[in-house]
């Protein structure tokens, strides 16, 4: 068998990244994927999914008391999203830096939100905010069998 165990070294992390319905509709899937690929992170799962209201309410459960919650769930369910799992050293924190601030008005140029969107309610992408949330989100969006373990040919040129 060529199957490999997931990398268990302490600094290797996985994060859940999603292109939201506006990012999909605006044709930004490739650009967002390209940034994570170019950085050196490893794509280990990806699928397009039209999420149910219940699924999205669970995904955003921590925000259920917010005034924008109903609108957020409606927006996220307004079309398919591209759900992904990316792996790499520090990918949770670095992934958030690459997305930029939640409100695109505050996102630095060079970040995904800073470069491609304008309003907080249409901020085109999602990224887990901690290793713990990443685990929860990956579990919610993916079955274990949908996540691939493989050795990237660039690994020895990315990590010393
Ligand atoms: P992030 O997506 O950066 O983790 P969050 O978890 O605080 O931000 O909020 C989740 C999403 O909810 C966010 O991407 C966009 C939406 N949202 C956050 N604050 C909002 C606000 N004040 N008005 C409208 N939508 C908001
Ligand atoms: Mg969040």
Automatic annotation (TrEMBL):
Cofactor(s) annotated in UniProt: Mg(2+)
GO molecular function: ATP binding; nucleoside diphosphate kinase activity
UniProt-annotated catalytic positions: 126 (pros-phosphohistidine intermediate)
InterPro entries per the UniProt record, alphabetical: NDK-like_dom (IPR034907), NDK-like_dom_sf (IPR036850), Nucleoside_diP_kinase (IPR001564), Nucleoside_diP_kinase_AS (IPR023005)
PROSITE patterns noted in UniProt: NDPK, NDPK_LIKE
Stored Pfam families: NDK
Ranges where the Nucleoside diphosphate kinase-like domain occurs: 12-149
Similarity section: Belongs to the NDK family.
Annotated protein name in UniProt: Nucleoside diphosphate kinase
Organism: Ciona savignyi
């Amino acid at each position: 068998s060529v199957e490999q165990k997931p990398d268990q070294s302490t600094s290797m992390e996985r994060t859940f990244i999603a292109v939201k319905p506006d990012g999909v509709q605006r044709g930004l899937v490739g650009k967002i994927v390209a940034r994570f690929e170019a950085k050196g992170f490893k794509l280990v799962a990806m699928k397009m999914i039209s999420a149910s209201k219940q699924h999205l309410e669970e995904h955003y459960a921590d925000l259920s008391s917010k005034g924008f919650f109903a609108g957020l769930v409606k927006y996220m369910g307004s079309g398919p999203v591209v759900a992904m799992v990316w792996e790499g050293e520090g990918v949770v924190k670095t992934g958030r830096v690459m997305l930029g601030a939640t409100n695109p008005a505050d996102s630095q140029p060079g970040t995904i939100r800073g470069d491609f969107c304008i309003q907080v309610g249409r901020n085109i992408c999602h990224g887990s905010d901690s290793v713990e949330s990443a685990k929860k989100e990956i579990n919610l969006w993916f079955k274990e069998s949908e996540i691939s373990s493989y050795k990237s040919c660039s690994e020895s040129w990315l990590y010393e």
